[in-house]
Amino acid sequence: MQSVHAYFLRTGRPELPIEFELHRDTDGRSFSARRVVASQAGRPIFSMICSFHVPEQTPERLRPMPDPPTAPPAGGDHLTLDLDGLFELRRDLVEGDDHQDPRVSGSMWVRALGPLPDDAVVHDCLLLYASDHGTPWHVARPEGTDVGPSLDHSVWVHQRTWMDQWHHLRHEPTALADARGLYTGGMWRADGTHVATVAQENLIRPMDRR
Question: What is the pTM assigned to this prediction?
Fold first, then answer.
């Protein structure tokens, strides 16, 4: 996996089946690309462009893990979330966050609950799923505004990793304008290796427009 660029078009309905349409755009010696559209009841709810890259040995220059933290927090009812039995997620204490908000913060640790197969595709999918958790905007948003759903989500994968290990996610608010709040961030293994970079936009509107 090299990168994914996804757009959340409509709210999905769990009681309805999802139909996937795949477009094979290119297959090269090093790179390949696909487009995917997910639809329910004949209407697209999600679209994605993704790129795949054959691993190559080259020099690396990766972003170091932000300090602190250096290890997952001990946890507790106010800091630990069980995401439907798929992941264990622990939030870091962030200034201005009272942890009463049901969403996770912009700084957290996550790992998939096993046992997991030794299948790189499975771990790539779990990385993409985990990368969509958290937003710094529920702390950084202006007073009187509300953070809505994700509008789009992009991930660039730098290192293959195994998601049953602890990974640190750190997101920073980047720009808020025109009802859209952009944040950028990254994912690091517990040993400090930078494995992915993330960018996402949230819908942010006045509370009276919810």
Answer: 0.87
